[in-house]
Amino acid sequence: MKIGVVCYPTYGGSGVLATELGLGLARRGHEIHFITYRRPARLGFFHENVFYHEVDSGADYPLFEFAPYETALASKLVDVVENYELDLLHVHYAVPHAAVAYMARKILLSRGRYVPFITTLHGTDITLVGSNPAFAPTITFAINKSDGVTAVSESLKKDTLSSFAICRPIEVIYNFIDFERFKRDNKEHFRRAIAPNGEHILIHVSNFRPVKRVDDVIYIFKIIHDQTPSKLLLIGDGPERSKCEDLSRRLGLTKDIRFLGKQDAVEELLAVADVFLLPSASESFGLAALEAMACEVPVISSNVGGIPEVNIDGQTGFTSGVGMVDKMAEDVLKILDSEESLRGFRERALAQAARFDIEEMIPKYEAYYEEVLERSRVQPEEPVLDC
Ligand code: GMT
After folding, report:
1. Residue 15 CB partners (closer than 8 Å, separation 6+)
2. How many folded domains does the chain comprise?
3. Residues 156, 213: one domain?
4. Does 243 have pLDDT greater than 90?
5. What is the mean pLDDT of residues 347-356?
6. 9 lines ligand 1 (CB under 6 A)
7. In terms of Cα–Cα distance, which of 138, 163, 148 is closest to 91?
8. Ligand 1 center–CA 85 separation, angstroms
9. DSSP state of 178
10. Helices 69-84 & 94-110, crossing angle to 10 degrees?
């Protein structure tokens, strides 16, 4: 198949997932065209069957206080579909990509070609952004008009159905993990550099948005640090970072918390960690937790959204209500209680991560693409809605 992939190219989970999916599909012989405004973070090298088309929204024209990205993206989609004869568009993150794909499909149809599009819902496009009245009518319409819709967890599917008037089926295809990359390689030299006296290593990875509650990570760490020698690695960057740096200074923890910023080889740091912290206020799946589990790192998380579908309470780590930092700290200490306890959690985390192997999930996307293509071959026009 020839597939156009639209995503945010930043470090967010949806862009990571979209890029890994595209690369995985390319390895299986499909021709993949990424179409976005900047090269996706994980698309650093030459890959056979992979193309990248940059969207220029004409931002330098003085009239445009807000560059018309959607218009430029729709035009680029039309151009790429026509010139590379794409079969299908797969857009990740509903806002604004689903509406843009709808527009592109209309334009292409007016030029004699029906190209179906699939929308993958990732999380904040539904839970935080999509239900905002500024976007809701457009997003509801574009989801309903998609030729196929997937959600990354059962919880996100449920949230979508309860927040919007959706009158079409949603397929759940979970986030996945590439075990070639995410595995517990021996990085003893890193461990010695970070924790020279054998301290425990806690880790958090995110884009430092308020929804991630990185300040809770620091409060949890403070409780643990008061009881056992430990270090905290904070990976990623975003709007809350300086507030968190300030908090760690106020709590007297600067020596033992390292803000490492954005890192490409996250797996190398996960490989030396003992516990991963993810106390988010909202999380449709928690790809970062899955990456940790694949590296045999147990997870302490909140119990919101799709997290309990990934992190099994008492097995692969523990889950708690949002903001329950005392309980989360207690749970970390339970895991770290003995070598044997830690080993058990590590083994179960890895076994659970194996359920989300990329090799199992990519065929699910392929099968879904086939299904959508077949439907649009039989009926090459907009889906007729029963609502
Ligand atoms: O919050 C992020 O890390 C970024 C965000 C995004 O949409 O780019 O991630 C969402 O999509 C990921 C991939 O499907 C999910 O694993 C994350 O749980 C989800 N984030 C939230 O729901 C807050």
Report:
1. 7, 8, 9, 40, 41, 42, 92
2. 2
3. no
4. yes
5. 98
6. no
7. 148
8. 31
9. -
10. 50
CA distance 212 to 220: 14
Cβ–ligand 1 distance for 96 under 6 Å, the answer no
Going from the Cα of 108 to the center of ligand 1, the distance in angstroms, rounded, reads 31
* Residue 181 belongs to a domain: no
Residue from 158, 287, 299 to probe ligand 1 pocket by mutation (most atoms less than 8 Å from CB):
287
Helix (H, G, I), strand (E, B) or coil at 149: strand
- Indicate if 365 and 345 belong to the same structural domain: no
Report the pLDDT value the prediction gives residue 169, as an integer from 0 to 100: 94
123 CA to middle of ligand 1, Å? 5
| Pair (143, 8) in one structural domain | yes
Are 277 and 328 in contact, with CB atoms under 8 Å apart?
A: yes
Residue 212 and residue 97 share a domain: no
Residue of the CA atom closest to atom 14 of ligand 1: 122
pTM above 0.70, yes or no: yes
**Ligand 1 pocket check for 207: Cβ under 6 Å:** yes
User: Which tokens belong to 20?
Assistant: 């890994």
Closest CA to 364 of 117, 159, 182, 175: 175
